[in-house]
Amino acid sequence: MTIGKSVYEHYAPAGKGVGVLPLVARCRVLEIGFGSGALLAALADAGNDVYGVDAGLDIVENARNQGFANVAHLDVSEEPLPFEDDFFDAVYCYEVFEHLTNPHRLFFEIRRVLKREYCLFFSVPSQEVGMGYGPLRHTFVYPGLLEKPNLERFFMQMYFCIEAAIEPSPENWLLGYNYVLTNMKSPEKPDITEVITKDLSVVGLYGDVVPPETLAKEVALELSWYAWEIERCIQQNKIEAALALIQSLLAGYPGEYDFFLDAADKLKLKGAWSGAKMALSMLIQRGNLPTPVMQRVKQILQEVVAARDTASGA
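^ that's the sequence the OP posted. Answer follows.
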Protein backbone atom coordinates (compact mmCIF):
# COMPACT_ATOMS: atom_id res chain seq x y z
CA MET A 1 0.00 0.00 0.00
CA THR A 2 1.29 3.46 -0.87
CA ILE A 3 1.70 6.27 1.67
CA GLY A 4 -1.31 8.12 0.29
CA LYS A 5 -3.58 5.08 0.28
CA SER A 6 -2.58 4.32 3.86
CA VAL A 7 -3.13 7.85 5.17
CA TYR A 8 -6.34 8.61 3.23
CA GLU A 9 -7.97 5.16 3.34
CA HIS A 10 -10.82 6.41 5.55
CA TYR A 11 -10.34 10.15 4.97
CA ALA A 12 -13.37 12.45 5.27
CA PRO A 13 -12.92 15.07 2.50
CA ALA A 14 -13.26 18.75 3.40
CA GLY A 15 -12.12 20.40 0.19
CA LYS A 16 -13.57 22.94 -2.25
CA GLY A 17 -16.29 20.83 -3.83
CA VAL A 18 -17.35 22.58 -7.02
CA GLY A 19 -15.03 25.54 -6.35
CA VAL A 20 -14.98 28.91 -8.09
CA LEU A 21 -13.51 28.05 -11.50
CA PRO A 22 -15.70 27.48 -14.57
CA LEU A 23 -17.08 24.08 -15.54
CA VAL A 24 -16.37 22.71 -19.01
CA ALA A 25 -19.16 21.05 -20.99
CA ARG A 26 -19.35 18.09 -23.36
CA CYS A 27 -15.74 17.06 -22.77
CA ARG A 28 -13.84 14.05 -21.49
CA VAL A 29 -12.80 15.21 -18.03
CA LEU A 30 -10.64 13.86 -15.21
CA GLU A 31 -10.88 14.97 -11.59
CA ILE A 32 -7.90 14.10 -9.40
CA GLY A 33 -8.77 13.80 -5.72
CA PHE A 34 -12.54 14.05 -6.17
CA GLY A 35 -13.41 13.79 -2.47
CA SER A 36 -17.14 14.23 -1.88
CA GLY A 37 -17.94 13.77 -5.57
CA ALA A 38 -19.72 17.14 -5.78
CA LEU A 39 -17.56 18.34 -8.66
CA LEU A 40 -17.81 15.00 -10.46
CA ALA A 41 -21.60 15.31 -10.27
CA ALA A 42 -21.58 18.92 -11.51
CA LEU A 43 -19.31 17.99 -14.42
CA ALA A 44 -21.55 15.05 -15.31
CA ASP A 45 -24.62 17.33 -15.22
CA ALA A 46 -22.82 19.61 -17.71
CA GLY A 47 -22.75 16.75 -20.21
CA ASN A 48 -19.15 15.65 -19.68
CA ASP A 49 -17.74 12.14 -19.79
CA VAL A 50 -16.25 12.12 -16.28
CA TYR A 51 -13.39 10.12 -14.78
CA GLY A 52 -11.91 10.36 -11.30
CA VAL A 53 -9.03 9.09 -9.18
CA ASP A 54 -8.58 9.34 -5.42
CA ALA A 55 -6.27 7.81 -2.79
CA GLY A 56 -9.16 7.35 -0.33
CA LEU A 57 -10.68 3.87 -0.47
CA ASP A 58 -13.92 4.96 1.21
CA ILE A 59 -14.13 7.94 -1.16
CA VAL A 60 -13.85 5.75 -4.25
CA GLU A 61 -16.36 3.20 -2.97
CA ASN A 62 -18.82 5.99 -2.16
CA ALA A 63 -18.47 7.40 -5.69
CA ARG A 64 -19.13 3.99 -7.20
CA ASN A 65 -22.21 3.63 -5.03
CA GLN A 66 -23.39 6.98 -6.44
CA GLY A 67 -23.16 5.57 -9.96
CA PHE A 68 -19.75 6.83 -11.09
CA ALA A 69 -18.23 3.92 -13.02
CA ASN A 70 -14.99 5.51 -14.22
CA VAL A 71 -13.36 6.10 -10.84
CA ALA A 72 -10.12 4.48 -9.64
CA HIS A 73 -8.42 4.01 -6.29
CA LEU A 74 -5.02 5.53 -7.03
CA ASP A 75 -2.23 7.48 -5.30
CA VAL A 76 -0.97 10.03 -7.83
CA SER A 77 2.23 10.54 -5.82
CA GLU A 78 3.37 6.98 -6.49
CA GLU A 79 1.25 5.50 -9.27
CA PRO A 80 0.79 6.56 -12.92
CA LEU A 81 -2.59 7.66 -14.17
CA PRO A 82 -4.16 4.67 -15.99
CA PHE A 83 -4.91 6.58 -19.18
CA GLU A 84 -3.33 7.00 -22.60
CA ASP A 85 -1.45 10.12 -23.65
CA ASP A 86 -3.72 13.03 -24.69
CA PHE A 87 -6.79 11.26 -23.35
CA PHE A 88 -8.51 14.22 -21.67
CA ASP A 89 -9.93 17.56 -22.78
CA ALA A 90 -9.77 18.97 -19.23
CA VAL A 91 -8.41 18.05 -15.81
CA TYR A 92 -9.62 19.34 -12.43
CA CYS A 93 -7.48 19.12 -9.31
CA TYR A 94 -8.75 21.00 -6.24
CA GLU A 95 -7.01 21.00 -2.84
CA VAL A 96 -4.90 17.91 -3.61
CA PHE A 97 -1.43 19.23 -4.45
CA GLU A 98 -0.58 20.15 -0.85
CA HIS A 99 -1.23 16.56 0.32
CA LEU A 100 1.19 14.87 -2.06
CA THR A 101 4.59 13.34 -1.36
CA ASN A 102 5.52 13.79 -5.05
CA PRO A 103 3.94 16.89 -6.63
CA HIS A 104 6.23 16.61 -9.65
CA ARG A 105 4.76 13.24 -10.57
CA LEU A 106 1.25 14.67 -10.43
CA PHE A 107 2.04 17.41 -12.95
CA PHE A 108 4.12 15.07 -15.10
CA GLU A 109 1.13 12.72 -15.39
CA ILE A 110 -1.42 15.50 -15.90
CA ARG A 111 0.76 16.94 -18.65
CA ARG A 112 0.90 13.53 -20.31
CA VAL A 113 -2.83 12.65 -20.28
CA LEU A 114 -4.11 16.18 -20.98
CA LYS A 115 -4.13 17.37 -24.59
CA ARG A 116 -1.74 20.15 -25.57
CA GLU A 117 -3.24 23.64 -25.20
CA TYR A 118 -6.12 22.26 -23.11
CA CYS A 119 -6.71 23.32 -19.52
CA LEU A 120 -6.00 22.15 -15.99
CA PHE A 121 -8.30 23.73 -13.39
CA PHE A 122 -6.28 23.82 -10.21
CA SER A 123 -6.50 25.14 -6.66
CA VAL A 124 -4.45 25.05 -3.45
CA PRO A 125 -4.75 26.75 -0.05
CA SER A 126 -2.87 30.01 0.36
CA GLN A 127 0.28 29.28 2.33
CA GLU A 128 0.97 32.95 3.00
CA VAL A 129 -2.26 33.20 5.03
CA GLY A 130 -3.27 29.72 6.05
CA MET A 131 0.00 27.96 6.93
CA GLY A 132 0.07 26.60 10.45
CA TYR A 133 -1.11 23.87 12.78
CA GLY A 134 -4.41 23.29 14.54
CA PRO A 135 -7.97 24.50 13.82
CA LEU A 136 -8.49 26.55 10.61
CA ARG A 137 -4.82 26.22 9.67
CA HIS A 138 -3.13 24.07 7.04
CA THR A 139 0.19 22.24 7.01
CA PHE A 140 1.99 21.26 3.79
CA VAL A 141 4.37 18.47 2.85
CA TYR A 142 6.48 20.99 0.87
CA PRO A 143 5.69 24.37 2.49
CA GLY A 144 7.96 26.57 0.38
CA LEU A 145 6.43 25.24 -2.84
CA LEU A 146 3.03 26.65 -1.86
CA GLU A 147 4.29 30.24 -1.70
CA LYS A 148 2.86 32.04 -4.72
CA PRO A 149 6.13 32.91 -6.57
CA ASN A 150 7.51 29.40 -6.11
CA LEU A 151 4.23 27.76 -7.08
CA GLU A 152 3.99 29.78 -10.27
CA ARG A 153 7.62 29.03 -11.13
CA PHE A 154 6.80 25.34 -10.66
CA PHE A 155 3.94 25.71 -13.17
CA MET A 156 6.39 27.25 -15.62
CA GLN A 157 8.93 24.46 -15.15
CA MET A 158 6.21 21.91 -15.85
CA TYR A 159 5.18 23.82 -19.04
CA PHE A 160 1.82 25.10 -17.83
CA CYS A 161 0.82 28.63 -18.79
CA ILE A 162 -1.34 30.65 -16.38
CA GLU A 163 -4.43 31.69 -18.33
CA ALA A 164 -6.45 32.97 -15.37
CA ALA A 165 -6.03 33.28 -11.62
CA ILE A 166 -8.26 34.03 -8.66
CA GLU A 167 -6.32 35.02 -5.57
CA PRO A 168 -7.53 35.31 -1.98
CA SER A 169 -8.01 38.64 -0.25
CA PRO A 170 -7.54 39.04 3.53
CA GLU A 171 -11.26 38.69 4.15
CA ASN A 172 -11.68 35.50 2.08
CA TRP A 173 -8.38 33.73 2.71
CA LEU A 174 -10.12 30.32 2.74
CA LEU A 175 -10.56 30.77 -1.02
CA GLY A 176 -6.89 29.94 -1.59
CA TYR A 177 -5.20 30.18 -4.99
CA ASN A 178 -7.21 29.15 -8.06
CA TYR A 179 -5.71 28.81 -11.54
CA VAL A 180 -6.69 27.92 -15.06
CA LEU A 181 -3.50 26.47 -16.54
CA THR A 182 -2.91 25.65 -20.21
CA ASN A 183 -0.80 22.61 -21.03
CA MET A 184 2.05 23.82 -23.25
CA LYS A 185 3.83 20.47 -23.55
CA SER A 186 5.82 19.55 -26.64
CA PRO A 187 7.81 16.44 -27.61
CA GLU A 188 10.89 18.64 -27.89
CA LYS A 189 10.59 20.01 -24.36
CA PRO A 190 12.61 18.13 -21.72
CA ASP A 191 11.11 17.42 -18.31
CA ILE A 192 12.60 19.46 -15.48
CA THR A 193 14.39 16.32 -14.25
CA GLU A 194 16.32 16.32 -17.54
CA VAL A 195 16.83 20.09 -17.52
CA ILE A 196 18.73 19.67 -14.24
CA THR A 197 21.42 17.68 -16.06
CA LYS A 198 21.89 20.11 -18.97
CA ASP A 199 22.82 23.72 -19.69
CA LEU A 200 19.59 25.12 -21.12
CA SER A 201 18.34 28.70 -21.11
CA VAL A 202 15.12 29.89 -19.52
CA VAL A 203 14.23 31.63 -22.80
CA GLY A 204 14.45 28.48 -24.90
CA LEU A 205 12.57 26.41 -22.35
CA TYR A 206 9.76 28.72 -21.29
CA GLY A 207 9.55 31.55 -23.81
CA ASP A 208 6.16 30.30 -25.00
CA VAL A 209 4.89 29.42 -21.51
CA VAL A 210 5.06 32.67 -19.55
CA PRO A 211 4.16 36.25 -20.59
CA PRO A 212 6.99 38.58 -21.66
CA GLU A 213 7.14 40.45 -18.35
CA THR A 214 7.47 37.21 -16.38
CA LEU A 215 10.09 35.90 -18.77
CA ALA A 216 12.05 39.14 -18.41
CA LYS A 217 12.07 38.72 -14.62
CA GLU A 218 13.26 35.12 -14.95
CA VAL A 219 16.02 36.16 -17.36
CA ALA A 220 17.13 38.97 -15.04
CA LEU A 221 17.25 36.50 -12.15
CA GLU A 222 19.34 34.07 -14.20
CA LEU A 223 21.75 36.68 -15.52
CA SER A 224 22.30 38.30 -12.12
CA TRP A 225 24.28 35.25 -11.01
CA TYR A 226 26.28 35.15 -14.27
CA ALA A 227 27.05 38.86 -13.92
CA TRP A 228 28.44 38.19 -10.46
CA GLU A 229 30.56 35.29 -11.74
CA ILE A 230 31.94 37.30 -14.67
CA GLU A 231 32.79 40.16 -12.29
CA ARG A 232 34.58 37.72 -9.99
CA CYS A 233 36.61 36.27 -12.86
CA ILE A 234 37.59 39.75 -14.07
CA GLN A 235 38.65 40.90 -10.61
CA GLN A 236 40.81 37.77 -10.26
CA ASN A 237 42.31 38.38 -13.72
CA LYS A 238 40.78 35.16 -15.04
CA ILE A 239 39.96 36.87 -18.31
CA GLU A 240 39.81 33.70 -20.41
CA ALA A 241 37.28 32.20 -17.99
CA ALA A 242 35.15 35.35 -18.18
CA LEU A 243 35.25 35.29 -21.98
CA ALA A 244 34.37 31.59 -22.10
CA LEU A 245 31.31 32.25 -19.96
CA ILE A 246 30.30 35.22 -22.10
CA GLN A 247 30.64 33.07 -25.22
CA SER A 248 28.41 30.33 -23.82
CA LEU A 249 25.78 32.82 -22.62
CA LEU A 250 25.51 34.45 -26.05
CA ALA A 251 23.95 31.27 -27.40
CA GLY A 252 21.26 31.13 -24.72
CA TYR A 253 20.56 34.85 -24.27
CA PRO A 254 21.30 36.43 -27.67
CA GLY A 255 18.98 39.40 -27.19
CA GLU A 256 20.26 40.51 -23.78
CA TYR A 257 22.56 43.16 -25.27
CA ASP A 258 22.91 45.29 -22.16
CA PHE A 259 24.28 42.33 -20.22
CA PHE A 260 27.06 41.72 -22.75
CA LEU A 261 27.82 45.42 -23.16
CA ASP A 262 28.15 45.72 -19.38
CA ALA A 263 30.54 42.74 -19.36
CA ALA A 264 32.70 44.37 -22.03
CA ASP A 265 32.63 47.62 -20.04
CA LYS A 266 33.85 45.80 -16.92
CA LEU A 267 36.72 44.25 -18.88
CA LYS A 268 37.64 47.70 -20.18
CA LEU A 269 37.61 49.24 -16.70
CA LYS A 270 39.85 46.44 -15.43
CA GLY A 271 42.36 47.23 -18.16
CA ALA A 272 41.69 43.96 -19.97
CA TRP A 273 41.48 45.75 -23.30
CA SER A 274 41.99 42.69 -25.49
CA GLY A 275 39.32 40.91 -23.48
CA ALA A 276 36.90 43.80 -23.94
CA LYS A 277 37.48 43.81 -27.69
CA MET A 278 37.02 40.04 -27.81
CA ALA A 279 33.71 40.27 -25.93
CA LEU A 280 32.47 42.93 -28.31
CA SER A 281 33.66 40.90 -31.30
CA MET A 282 31.61 37.93 -30.04
CA LEU A 283 28.57 40.16 -29.82
CA ILE A 284 29.07 41.58 -33.31
CA GLN A 285 29.39 38.08 -34.74
CA ARG A 286 25.83 37.36 -33.65
CA GLY A 287 24.78 39.75 -36.41
CA ASN A 288 21.76 42.04 -36.89
CA LEU A 289 22.50 44.20 -33.87
CA PRO A 290 20.06 47.09 -33.32
CA THR A 291 21.48 50.49 -34.19
CA PRO A 292 21.67 51.74 -30.55
CA VAL A 293 23.54 48.58 -29.58
CA MET A 294 26.01 48.96 -32.43
CA GLN A 295 26.56 52.58 -31.44
CA ARG A 296 27.34 51.49 -27.88
CA VAL A 297 29.76 48.84 -29.21
CA LYS A 298 31.64 51.51 -31.18
CA GLN A 299 31.70 53.80 -28.15
CA ILE A 300 33.23 51.12 -25.90
CA LEU A 301 35.79 50.26 -28.59
CA GLN A 302 36.79 53.93 -28.81
CA GLU A 303 37.09 54.07 -25.02
CA VAL A 304 39.26 50.94 -25.06
CA VAL A 305 41.63 52.51 -27.62
CA ALA A 306 41.76 55.77 -25.67
CA ALA A 307 42.45 53.99 -22.36
CA ARG A 308 45.17 51.86 -23.93
CA ASP A 309 46.84 54.87 -25.58
CA THR A 310 46.72 56.80 -22.31
CA ALA A 311 48.30 53.89 -20.45
CA SER A 312 51.02 53.51 -23.14
CA GLY A 313 51.91 57.19 -22.95
CA ALA A 314 52.00 57.34 -19.16
